[in-house]
Amino acid sequence: MNTSTTRSTQQWQAADAAHFLHPFTDFQALAKKGSRIITQAENIYLTDSDGHRILDAMSGLWCVNVGYGQQALIDAATRQLGQLPFYNAFFQTATPPAIELAELLAEVSPPGFSRVFFSGSGSEGNDTIVRMVRRYWDVLGQPQRSVILSRKNAYHGSTMAGASLGGMSGMHAQGGLPIPGIQHIEQPYWFENGGDMSREEFGRVAASWLEQKILAVGPEKVAAFIGEPVQGAGGVIVPPDSYWPEIQRICDKYGVLLVSDEVICGFGRTGHWFGCQRFGFKPDLITFAKGVTSGYIPLGGVLVGDRVAKVLIEQGGEFEHGYTYSGHPVACAVAVANIRLIQQLGLVQQVHDDTGPYLAELYKQLADHPLVVETQTCGLMAALQLGRRDGKGGGTRGQRFDESWSVGMVCRGHCFANGLIMRAVGDRMIIAPPLVITRAQIDEMAVLIRRCLDLTLQDCQRNGWL
Ligand SMILES: *Cc1c(COP(=O)(O)O)cnc(C)c1O
């Protein structure tokens, strides 16, 4: 049965509005407008309930790395559901898919990572991070070492710990966050904070904010620093190349654990298996989720480096933490199939050698568009900062639009209407297409992007914003 044909779009929308509270959504506003109902997908294209074809330049929510409709993943799930749909890993038991995935993750992880703790999502993975780094210092007899440092405009998930680690002010404003023992430094966002500095100069300055914070808190109290190699939800903020090596040096200097949240950057997104490899740093812990299963089924976790694993295993005793679905056999079977497919298709290499550089080239050309004041790409993630190039009101790199004009949302509306999913973070337009995207499809995407920028430009001119 094809469920999309069982009801009309309006019927779906009515039932949706009546019963389904969506994440990160103004419930009332959406109910008035009606959701877009997505019914099918294949490769990089979605189909909605009105039969429109949409190029999904966001890989669902940064996760469908191998694209939609991959039979190997579907078969792995179906087979495992039949054989053993669930068993837990609590009571000194394990299932073959979980063991196989743990082994395979050790193979594709950076050197020094041979162990994994599974969760059901990225947020839960970061909850595990908080528990694990604090436990690590406890076991070492330094329980006062409990403060975790993070960055403003970071996204680390939406559970209490995940949202606290994250640096989204809107999230902190609801529900009494952050939880105690988490502090934030400013992000390495050159367009916003770079002043007159060159990118590389700014990268070192932005890293020095970590050292200042460690000294302000007291190095004996700082447990860990967490960051996304490239901030995803924050707007594809690609740090200068000088940033991460300096962060690494500072963490090493004070013995602070370094955590790389690779929920987006992991599994090929940057043209490397993990983003830390793109930026040349060696974390102690890595959070993963999203791309590990290409989003076909939920799974997340923490890759545990030797430094932490040795202490927890040899001195830690029982670690009082875990989830019902830690090592879920169906999720793990899909992840194994997904990682093998990434290997077979050579997707990491393809992004590194071919499609990543090709996208970068096209984005350089988009930098000529009168609405675009900055472009950034990293592998297959990219951002277009919209603004005024005349520097009206100052600003060496162009000027932001008035926030109340919501130019990003105007642009996003044109994208939707023209069959393209591109996300707006303020006036920063971002993409992260499936890693299977071809050069021809990148061309197709670039044509759509330029068309939507042109339509947005016309709106801006009509409203006198330029
Ligand atoms: C999406 C995301 C998370 C949260 O993952 P969920 O599966 O939504 O809980 C955490 N960190 C980063 C960097 C993310 O992009």
TrEMBL record:
Lineage: superkingdom: Bacteria
Keywords noted in UniProt: Aminotransferase, Pyridoxal phosphate, Transferase
Coiled-coil segments on the chain, per record: none
Cofactor: pyridoxal 5'-phosphate
Molecular functions (GO terms): transaminase activity
A Pfam short name: Aminotran_3
Keyword Transferase among record annotations: yes
Family: Belongs to the class-III pyridoxal-phosphate-dependent aminotransferase family.
Name used for this protein in its record: Aspartate aminotransferase family protein
